[in-house]
């Protein structure tokens, strides 16, 4: 029996060869070819391990495979080719476990190891032997997982997503722990891999990621520009990996992947490495592939996240990026002591402000009843909150299956405004920053076309309550920190609408928690 994740690129050639040998196929899948290939070697006298090794060496493409055979029932053999799918091995008491994701192992084990690309594991009840596919030995170190088994249960919550949303104040505290000093104000990143000279040599940064991690990167870019004075671009990993990016050793590539196993981000990191860029990765899990490829890791410390929709990993990625931008600003001599002191002061209150946003959720239930049956939504934001509009739209579409688009509000007049009518709810992010007046006029434009506006605005903003149909209030905060706070209403709105529509919140259709194939 074979469990397969990936794409077996040359399977048609091998299938023909195996069919000629007499193997009978019952499907058109590439996966079915793998057990036949292994069986063919076993028929010629190979052990399960030898046959799997021989088969692995003939498979092209990125594939993660687990193999069992009735002929050797006390053994599981697994291998990983290219960046497809994680294989995590859990060390239990008198038992060994294999899974594609650490979440499945957590109720049973705390010590794990990850298979790297080109590696094989032969697992028996009490031990595991690691080799490369060419047969050479591998010395593997294990990682101790600090999240308790309890975190893999829903507890009092109806869904993991809601539980994970509620965990955000504590998760943010963990992210900040040991990184922010209040007296005197300072940011330290003990995990930071580059010397001060190296930091000063960087002439640009490029942030890469997918989905929610990309949206975190879009905000991170603006912080790096404004707090560190470093030119910064942001790109979707799946685009970056196939374009002719110009990189050198003075380019800092920052990848964001909570899972550390997203195939496109790993592909983009491989490209960056081959072109000599220096690499930093933000990740939630120690020992995953992205942490092995990068020169250094900034753990986001969100704790285990099970729901497919990323929530606390998004917020913790944002907080880590904010701290990183301030750190780079200090090291580059760009951030004044006064600005740093303000940043630190506000970070001190961040968990409390997030807690405040979570304290009463009745408004979201009401909004879900009012708007949950609409077919389309628009999300609008500007500046650092434009990526939050994208994130709000992504959260809503992935778990409630409502079509939603996130736009920089300035784009409205260039097309999307023609969509506005009385059936269109528009979620407008209207923090009191230097783009406030511009956002207000976007709200006016929507109202003039009879759209409904759900504004997300700072407490005490009287203008907005006169204009919008609904207002979700966020605590007053600096412009820099509003994207972190605005993440919470985006999550709760999507969550309650999905519940109202009876959707499978934690496991939306067609989606996987980590996308390990491109
Ligand atoms: C998040 O809600 C999504 N499920 C998805 O966009 C995700 O953020 C993306 O696949 C990237 O995952 P990563 O952070 O593990 O690389």
TrEMBL record:
<comment type="pathway">
    <text>Nucleotide-sugar biosynthesis; UDP-N-acetyl-alpha-D-glucosamine biosynthesis; alpha-D-glucosamine 6-phosphate from D-fructose 6-phosphate: step 1/1.</text>
</comment>
<dbReference type="InterPro" id="IPR017932">
    <property type="entry name" value="GATase_2_dom"/>
</dbReference>
<dbReference type="GO" id="GO:0097367">
    <property type="term" value="F:carbohydrate derivative binding"/>
</dbReference>
<dbReference type="InterPro" id="IPR046348">
    <property type="entry name" value="SIS_dom_sf"/>
</dbReference>
<dbReference type="GO" id="GO:0046349">
    <property type="term" value="P:amino sugar biosynthetic process"/>
</dbReference>
<dbReference type="Pfam" id="PF13537">
    <property type="entry name" value="GATase_7"/>
</dbReference>
<keyword id="KW-0808">Transferase</keyword>
<dbReference type="InterPro" id="IPR029055">
    <property type="entry name" value="Ntn_hydrolases_N"/>
</dbReference>
<keyword id="KW-0315">Glutamine amidotransferase</keyword>
<dbReference type="InterPro" id="IPR035466">
    <property type="entry name" value="GlmS/AgaS_SIS"/>
</dbReference>
<feature type="domain" description="SIS">
    <location>
        <begin position="367"/>
        <end position="508"/>
    </location>
</feature>
<feature type="domain" description="SIS">
    <location>
        <begin position="195"/>
        <end position="334"/>
    </location>
</feature>
<dbReference type="GO" id="GO:0006047">
    <property type="term" value="P:UDP-N-acetylglucosamine metabolic process"/>
</dbReference>
<protein>
    <recommendedName>
        <fullName>glutamine--fructose-6-phosphate transaminase (isomerizing)</fullName>
        <ecNumber>2.6.1.16</ecNumber>
    </recommendedName>
</protein>
<dbReference type="GO" id="GO:0006002">
    <property type="term" value="P:fructose 6-phosphate metabolic process"/>
</dbReference>
<dbReference type="InterPro" id="IPR035490">
    <property type="entry name" value="GlmS/FrlB_SIS"/>
</dbReference>
<dbReference type="GO" id="GO:0005829">
    <property type="term" value="C:cytosol"/>
</dbReference>
<dbReference type="GO" id="GO:0004360">
    <property type="term" value="F:glutamine-fructose-6-phosphate transaminase (isomerizing) activity"/>
</dbReference>
<feature type="domain" description="Glutamine amidotransferase type-2">
    <location>
        <begin position="1"/>
        <end position="126"/>
    </location>
</feature>
<dbReference type="GO" id="GO:0006487">
    <property type="term" value="P:protein N-linked glycosylation"/>
</dbReference>
<keyword id="KW-0032">Aminotransferase</keyword>
<dbReference type="InterPro" id="IPR001347">
    <property type="entry name" value="SIS_dom"/>
</dbReference>
<dbReference type="Pfam" id="PF01380">
    <property type="entry name" value="SIS"/>
</dbReference>
<keyword id="KW-0677">Repeat</keyword>
<dbReference type="InterPro" id="IPR005855">
    <property type="entry name" value="GFAT"/>
</dbReference>
């Amino acid at each position: 029996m074979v469990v397969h994740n990936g794409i077996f690129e040359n399977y048609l050639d091998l299938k023909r060869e195996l069919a000629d040998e007499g193997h009978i196929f019952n499907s058109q899948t590439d996966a079915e070819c793998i057990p036949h290939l292994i069986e063919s070697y076993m028929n010629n006298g190979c052990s399960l391990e030898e046959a799997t090794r021989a088969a692995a060496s003939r498979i092209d493409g990125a594939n993660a495979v687990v193999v069992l055979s009735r002929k050797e029932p006390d053994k599981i053999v697994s291998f990983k080719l290219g960046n497809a799918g994680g294989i995590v091995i859990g060390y239990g008491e008198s038992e060994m476990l294999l899974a594609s994701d650490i979440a499945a192992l957590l109720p049973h084990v705390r010590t794990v190891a990850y298979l790297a690309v080109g590696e094989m594991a032969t697992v028996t009840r009490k031990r595991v032997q690691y080799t490369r596919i060419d047969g050479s030995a591998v010395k593997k170190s294990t990682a101790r997982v600090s999240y308790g088994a309890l975190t893999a249960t829903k507890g009092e919550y109806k869904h993991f997503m809601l539980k994970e949303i509620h965990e955000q104040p504590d998760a943010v505290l963990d992210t900040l722990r040991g990184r922010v000093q209040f007296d005197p104000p300072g940011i330290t990143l003990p995990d930071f891999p580059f010397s001060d000279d190296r930091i000063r040599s960087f002439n640009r940064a490029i942030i890469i990621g997918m989905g929610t991690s990309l949206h975190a990167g879009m905000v991170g870019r603006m912080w790096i520009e404004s707090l560190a004075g470093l030119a910064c671009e942001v790109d979707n990993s799946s685009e970056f990996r196939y374009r002719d990016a110009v990189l050198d050793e003075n380019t800092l590539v920052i990848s964001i992947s909570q899972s550390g196993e997203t195939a496109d981000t790993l592909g983009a990191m491989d490209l960056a490495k081959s072109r000599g860029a220096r690499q930093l990765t933000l990740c939630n899990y120690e020992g995953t592939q992205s942490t092995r490829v990068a020169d250094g890791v900034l753990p986001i410390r969100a704790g285990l996240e099970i729901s497919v929709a990323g929530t606390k990993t998004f917020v913790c990625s944002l907080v880590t990026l904010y701290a990183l931008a301030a750190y780079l600003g200090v090291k580059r001599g760009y951030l004044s002591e006064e600005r740093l002191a303000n940043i630190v002061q506000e970070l001190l209150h961040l968990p409390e402000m997030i807690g405040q946003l979570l304290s009463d959720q009745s408004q979201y239930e009401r909004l879900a009843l009012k708007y949950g049956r609409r077919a389309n939504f628009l999300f609008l934001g500007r500046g650092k909150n434009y990526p939050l509009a994208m994130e709000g739209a992504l959260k809503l579409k992935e778990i409630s299956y409502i079509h939603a688009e996130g736009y920089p509000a300035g784009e409205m007049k260039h097309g999307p405004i023609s969509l506005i009518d009385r059936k269109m709810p528009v979620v407008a992010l209207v923090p009191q920053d230097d783009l406030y007046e511009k956002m207000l006029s976007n709200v006016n434009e929507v109202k003039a076309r009879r759209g409904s506006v759900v504004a997300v605005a700072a407490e005490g903003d009287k203008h907005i309550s006169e204009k919008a149909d609904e207002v979700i209030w966020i605590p007053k905060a600096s412009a820099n920190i509003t994207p972190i706070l605005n993440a919470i209403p985006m999550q709760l709105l999507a969550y309650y609408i999905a519940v109202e529509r009876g959707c499978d919140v934690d496991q939306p259709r067609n989606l996987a928690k980590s996308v390990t194939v491109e």
